[in-house]
Amino acid sequence: MTDHVEIDGDAPIFAIAAAAELSGMHPQTLRQYDRLGLVVPARTQGGSRRYSLRHVEQLREVARLSADGMSLPAIARLISLEQRVHDLTRRVRDLEQQLEAERQSRPGARVFAAGSTGSVVTLRHGTRVRRATELVVWRPRHPLSPGAEDESA
C-alpha cells in the first residue's frame, strides 16, 4: 500500500534555475517578473528566490497570457486578483474548520429566541417558537405630515 502525501502548493521549494526550467522560461525573465511584481517568490535569509508550485503555475499562466497578447500590467492585475481569491478561499476554509471544531466541542449548545416581551428565551434544540399574533415594528411618537419641521429643534 502506498501512502498518499499531499504537497503544499505554496511551499517555497524551487531555486530560480529549477523554477525557470519547470516554467519553460529563462531565469532572467523570472527576475524581471519579480521586479515588476508579476510573480514574487519567497526569499531565503540570504536573499535567494524560492518558488512554489503555485508560482510555477503562475509563470506558465503569464507566458500563456503574454503569448495571447495580454499586456504585463493586465497580467499583473489578474494575478493580484487570483491571489486575493486564493487568500480568501483559504480564510473561508480555515473559518469553516474553526466553526466545525466549535460545533463539535459544544454538542449540547443552546438556542435562543426573543420572547413576546422582548426577553431572551432559551430553547431546546429542535423546538419551534410559536408565532405572535401582533408585531409592532415601529410607531412614531408624533404623526408626521409632509413638510413638518422637527419640533425638538
TrEMBL record:
Keywords: Coiled coil, DNA-binding. The keyword DNA-binding applies. Signal peptide: none annotated. Residues 16-81 form the HTH merR-type domain. Pfam families: MerR_1 (PF13411). Residues 78-105 form a coiled coil. This is MerR family transcriptional regulator. It comes from Microbacterium invictum.
